[in-house]
């Protein structure tokens, strides 16, 4: 009986040892990282003739080709405003008026003084021809009267100008986008009309009697913006500016209309740079070919400018060309073997590269991509550069990879 019990105990103990050993091995397998295997996935593609396009990308903003700011050149109380926000106006169109009572009186007085000065000159000239009058005295009277007449004429011109300045005219064509004042309000000290900022067609001419000046970003009584002649303002990096020239074609994609690219043309590139921190760039402007309705100045856009194009050129995918300094090589399939060959490249497009020498049409070049992968088992653990993914038993086990991440639940 004792011997039987001892045998049973040995069997039970042995089974426990086996179970513990198995559990330990399972835990070791679960928590020990498996080596990642770099698998080189290769495929080949023939050298083809195609159009290779080199482009320059940048961010841009929609802007008006013309913005004019209209201000009264003299102070006064607004007596009429003949337009409202949203109205489309033409150059020289009447916009508003201020009280002209005082200016009209000043002109009336100036004209009366002119008449008096004219009569005085006529009398002096008559006296000059009278024999009883001294020659020198008569000449002095004429000279004095002529000077007074000249001054009176200048006073009339000044008074007329002041009266004309009580009416405000549009400095250019466009849409009224802002009115900063109401009828009955007193205007501030007058300033000349601003011909505005011309980005495209340069419509900054003023038909008002006030002088016209060109300003950028100024505010005034009435702002007029050309909403139909929109352009795109962009900045080109200094490394690319030598490639960008007026007349080149471009594609503009608005953030508000990502599915409707707009064709455009580079209209100008600034000669002087703009520096922000250590970044040097050059401003450029693009004219839109057929802009859709509803665009507004200030909208953001992405710009892609075509700076060079090679038609019917030998080309390979960009992934086939390996570059080290000025040396470019590709891997070519020859008689079932992969052979490295040096080539000369031309244009570098976004996805293709022009080959100017070293390859012939129809040859197969190799594209190689290396991926990291592990093994997956019943526990659901998978390796990877970003950590194991999977779950815990019954759905996988937790793992930590080079990325230090945790897996999810399987």
UniProtKB/TrEMBL annotation:
Membrane-traversing stretches: 12-31
UniProt source species: Amycolatopsis melonis
Annotated stretches, region: Disordered: 180-215, 370-410
Residue intervals of the CzcB-like C-terminal circularly permuted SH3-like domain: 315-367
Regions annotated as coiled coil: 107-162
Main location: other
Annotated ranges, domain CzcB-like barrel-sandwich hybrid: 74-186
The protein, known as: HlyD family efflux transporter periplasmic adaptor subunit
Ranges annotated as biased composition (Low complexity): 184-196, 204-215
YknX-like beta-barrel domain sequence ranges: 230-305
Positions with biased composition (Gly residues): 375-410
InterPro entries, per database record: Beta-barrel_YknX, BSH_CzcB-like, CzcB_C, UPF0194_transport
Protein keywords: Coiled coil, Membrane, Transmembrane, Transmembrane helix
Compartment(s) of residence: Cell envelope
């Amino acid at each position: 009986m004792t011997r039987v019990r001892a045998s049973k105990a040995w069997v039970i103990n042995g089974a426990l040892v086996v179970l513990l050993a198995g559990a330990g091995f399972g835990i070791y397998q679960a928590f020990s990282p498996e080596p990642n295997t770099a698998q080189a996935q290769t495929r080949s593609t023939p050298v083809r003739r195609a159009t290779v396009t080199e482009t320059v990308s940048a961010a841009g903003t929609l802007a008006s080709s013309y913005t004019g700011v209209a201000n009264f050149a003299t102070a006064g109380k607004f007596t009429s405003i003949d337009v409202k926000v949203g109205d489309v106006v033409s150059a020289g169109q009447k916009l508003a008026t201020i009280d002209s009572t005082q200016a009209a009186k000043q002109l009336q007085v100036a004209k009366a003084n002119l008449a008096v000065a004219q009569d005085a000159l006529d009398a002096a000239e008559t006296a000059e021809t009278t024999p009883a009058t001294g020659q020198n005295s008569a000449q002095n009277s004429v000279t004095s009267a002529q000077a007074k007449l000249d001054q009176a004429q200048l006073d009339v011109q000044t008074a007329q100008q002041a009266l004309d300045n009580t009416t405000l005219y549009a400095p250019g064509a466009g849409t009224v986008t802002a009115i900063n004042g109401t009828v009955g309000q007193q205007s501030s000290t007058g300033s000349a009309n601003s011909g505005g900022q011309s980005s495209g067609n340069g419509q900054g001419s003023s038909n008002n009697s006030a002088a016209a000046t060109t300003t950028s970003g100024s505010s005034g009584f009435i702002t007029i913006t050309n909403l139909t002649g929109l352009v795109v303002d962009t900045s080109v990096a200094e490394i690319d500016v030598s490639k960008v020239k007026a007349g080149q074609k471009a594609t503009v994609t608005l953030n508000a209309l990502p599915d409707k690219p707009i064709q455009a043309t580079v209209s100008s590139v600034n000669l002087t740079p703009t520096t922000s921190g250590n970044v040097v760039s050059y401003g450029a402007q693009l004219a839109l070919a057929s802009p859709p309705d509803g665009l507004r100045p200030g909208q953001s856009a992405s710009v892609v400018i075509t700076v060079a194009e090679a038609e019917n050129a030998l080309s390979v995918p960009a992934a086939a060309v390996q570059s080290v300094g000025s040396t470019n090589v590709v891997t070519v399939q020859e008689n079932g073997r992969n052979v490295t060959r040096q080539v000369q490249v031309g244009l570098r497009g976004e996805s293709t590269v022009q080959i100017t020498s070293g390859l012939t049409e129809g040859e197969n070049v190799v594209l190689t991509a290396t991926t990291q992968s592990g093994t997956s088992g019943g526990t659901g653990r998978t390796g990877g550069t970003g950590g194991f993914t999977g779950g815990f038993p019954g759905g996988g086990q937790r793992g930590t990879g080079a990325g230090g991440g945790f897996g999810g639940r399987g």
